[in-house]
Write a structure and sequence with these properties.
It is built from six helices and 24 strands. It is of the alpha+beta class. The protein folds into two domains: 121 residues, Acid Proteases (Cathepsin D, subunit A, domain 1, Beta Barrel), CATH 2.40.70; 163 residues, Cathepsin D, subunit A, domain 1, CATH 2.40.70. It is globular, with a radius of gyration of 27 Å.
Amino acid sequence: MISPLLNSNYAFRIKNMIKAIYTLLSILISNVLYAQTIKETPVLNQFQLTGDIVSFPLVIVNAFPFISGEINGVKGKLMFDTGNRNALEINNNIVPLLGQTDAGRGQVGSGQNFKMYNNDTIKDVKLVNGLHFQKLRKIPSANLDFLQNNITPDCIGYIGHDFFKGYLLKLDYTKRKLTFYKNSPQRESLKDFLAGEKVVAILNFEIRNLPNHPIIKVKANGIDILASFDTGAYGGIELTSKDSQKLKEKKYFIDYGKDGYDEELFILNNVKINDQLTTNFVGIYKHGDISHVRKALGITEGNYLTIAYRFLASYKTVWDYENKKIYVLAY
């Protein structure tokens, strides 16, 4: 005969086992339901932005904005360069690539030229915000060792204009944040990209030869200067001898000494961007031979200013390519 005490212990253990099983089942079901509610980032086969509002944290290196990422398993940083029209351009000096085909020659604004290649072997690209691309085709590459040597040794390439075609971009160097807003009639009406912002000026720009180069006309002491916007530069100026002398006499164009690399810097004062905004450009360089840039952009004017880091670090900006406007915002 089994004692009543043993019977009660046995019943107690069975009851606890049943409770444990129900608890385990409950946890498993909850996990399954939770996993089903997670919106997984899709793997894309074309290197173009998707989504309505997409943000990236930026790494600022020596005045240049970078997006962290990984190409075919090689981790590094991609320069975000609006002056580069390609959606993606890979540095084959750091990312091993097989089956490259000759695609002629390329040249950047600072003068370096190099052989270009096309690739149909880009298996995997991951960006820091979770965007994931696979099996990319027709991706250009080149030996971009000058970026490694002069800016950051882990530069794996560029992200350029065609990556965000159809989007506005908002650039904030202080918060180190890049945000894209998909163009739509509703967004143009509501302007949610300006929520909470103080608008300093709205600039209307033109496009000449290349869709990725916004061009405006500015004045310094009444002298006309053509200007273009570019994230992949410090900022530079080219003036005719006559206008340079006029501006120097009036203290509008001043020698600012040399930088740490022994290159001469200048200040261009009281530049009237439009009726809403007059500003100074401190620490800009004189352009060298930029005949290739002039030809590519369709610039025939004698005076030319590159609006880049020196300006973009002083103001937040929203670039609306579709409506040809740049919103200048206060930090």
